[in-house]
Amino acid sequence: FLSMNIMALSLGFYYGQLENYPDAVSWVIYIEAFLATLIIFGLGFPILKSAFFKLLKFQLSMEALISFGALTAYFYSLWTMFQGKTDIYFDTSSMIIAFVLVGKFLENSSKSKASQTIKKLLGLGVKSATLINDNIEKSINIEDVKVNDLLLVKPGEKIPVDGIIVDGNSFIDESMLTGESVPVAKKVEDKVYGATINQDGRFIFKATEIGDDTALSKIIELVEQAQNEKTESQKLADKLSIWFIPIVFILSALTGFYWYSQGAEFNTVLLNSVAVLVVACPCALGLAAPMATFVTLDKAASLGIIFKNSGIIEDLEKIDTVVIDKTGTITEGKMSISKVEVFDNNYQESEIIYLLASLENYSEHHIAKSIVKYSGFTNDQLSKVIDFRLIKGMGVEGIVDQKYIVAGNQRLLTERNIDITNKNLEFSDDSSTKIFVAINGKLEAQVCLQDQIKPGVK
Questions:
Q1: Is pTM beyond 0.70 here?
Q2: How high is the pLDDT of residue 166?
Q3: CATH 3.40.1110.10 domain span(s) along the chain
Q4: Is 325 a catalytic residue?
Q5: Fewest Cβ atoms nearer than 10 Å: which of 9, 226, 249, 411?
């Protein structure tokens, strides 16, 4: 705002309009001097201060170029003003500082926006936990949780800290940690992580990592490190500036000497020297590179992508292959039965689906829910299950209508000593997920499930 006022007043000198108002010339010059003083020694003080202390350490910086150029134009204008002349350049000195301040403002805005990522991550944390002490439940603040405390997590709650399950089992939504949208089965002695979400079962776990040692805290630390680290281009620019800035000062001095040797007036010598300093100032490089980094990190974080360090951004152009998880990433994560094959005709397909749905109704796994939905039966219509067991990574088993049912992958059937020889265990579509169904120790059917590709995936 102040710089624009100075520029507006300076137009009168540039276009010669003030020549018709000699009494107003002095007032205009005084006003420009006052406004320029506010800009350079007020708003521009941090720049001058930085340049001064770096010079005390014999360091020539970008701030030194800016300060020297602005102060030279400013004090020359003051000298000509006291001489009663109109060759003033308060607008030049002010605009030098103004442009840099605008750049700094944009840079700080980018930093502030990027820091919102950290605030969002902090918001994922839990504020309280349920402590189990002598079989008594007690709600405590998250800051009061200690290592080896036993904590209870109920269905739908966030896990407060990292730990190991000691009692119970459940499915955990770890998408905030791994990006995997499909809930992960957890049982006794499995690791659980703070800020992930318990889907269905109740379980008790022992706290092993708290505070800054949790996985969430380490992710936040990675984000902070990535924002503070410089890319290879920025590091190269810093190295070049060690030689670049002294060369600019030398060129500025040589430029002034050249015009002086040509008999030019002092103001011409001075302005050409200052012009070299201003034009050569690497403000754009010094501001553009950090801003690009901050904006990229913020945009990536908003999409769920977190960089371990900012240098990786420049390495992205070297990538020629991308490996992507299928389920829940490029697919909907909602399985549906595409085909059922019954062996030996001991059971009808409808009977197989009913028995399988009754068993899977006791599981919260996304495949189990898909099977129950496909069957079309409600909870009241399905049979009760005795001795239901969930075998992590393999399947389920239990007794339905006095029949021992095992449903899962080939490994589970092998462990249960179920003969799978002389069976056609392959469908033509190898991309499907297959569930083998055994009844009373004999393989009776296999069920093929498929996931749908997300509409936006190309």
A1: no
A2: 93
A3: 331-453
A4: yes
A5: 411
Q: Tokens at residue 327, please?
A: 């389920």
Beta strands in 270-360 (DSSP E): 336-342
Here the tokens at position 415 are 């462990």
- Using a 10 angstrom Cβ sphere, with 0-12 exposed, 13-18 middle and 19 or more buried, the burial of residue 92 is buried
What pLDDT is stored for residue 353 in this prediction?
A: 93
d(CA 20, CA 168): 92
For residue 141, give both structure tokens. 């603040």
Q: Distance between CA atoms of 255 and 244, rounded to whole angstroms?
A: 16
Tell me the C-alpha distance between 183 and 202, whole Å: 15
Q: Are 55 and 43 spatial neighbours (Cβ–Cβ below 8 Å)? A: no
220: Cβ–Cβ under 8 A, 6 or more apart, which residues?
A: 118, 121, 122
pLDDT for the residue 434: 86
pLDDT on residue 264: 87
The gap between the terminal CA atoms of the chain, to the nearest Å, is 49
Give the residue among 96, 97, 69, 65 at the shortest CA–CA distance from 246: 65
Q: Which CA distances in Å does 52 have to 62, 277, 355, 386, 442?
A: 12, 17, 82, 81, 86
pLDDT average per 10 residues of sequence, the chain (458 residues): 67 62 73 84 86 80 77 82 76 78 71 63 75 89 91 89 91 79 83 87 90 82 69 65 79 90 84 76 61 73 70 78 74 79 88 93 83 89 91 89 92 88 57 87 89 73
Kind and range of the H or E run holding 371: helix 366-375
Mind spelling out the 3-state secondary structure of 100-149?
HHHHHHHHHHHHHHHHHHHHHHHHCCCCEEEEEECCEEEEEEHHHCCCCC
pLDDT of residue 118: 61
**Torsion from C-alpha of 389, 391, 396, 400, nearest 10 degrees:** -20
> Are 216 and 193 a contacting pair, CB within 8 Å?
yes
What are the residue ranges of CATH 2.70.150.10 in the chain? 128-215
Cross-strand pairs, 158: 197
In CATH, which of 3.40.1110.10, 3.30.230.10, 3.20.20.370, 3.40.50.720 is domain 331-453? 3.40.1110.10
Q: Which of 212, 238, 325, 429 is catalytic?
A: 325
What is d(CA 391, CA 409) in angstroms, rounded to the nearest whole number?
Answer: 11
Q: In this predicted structure, what is the pLDDT of residue 354?
A: 94
- For 146, residues 6+ apart whose C-beta sits below 8 A from its C-beta are 207, 210
Domain 128-215 fold is 2.70.150
- The pLDDT, as a whole number, for residue 428 is 44
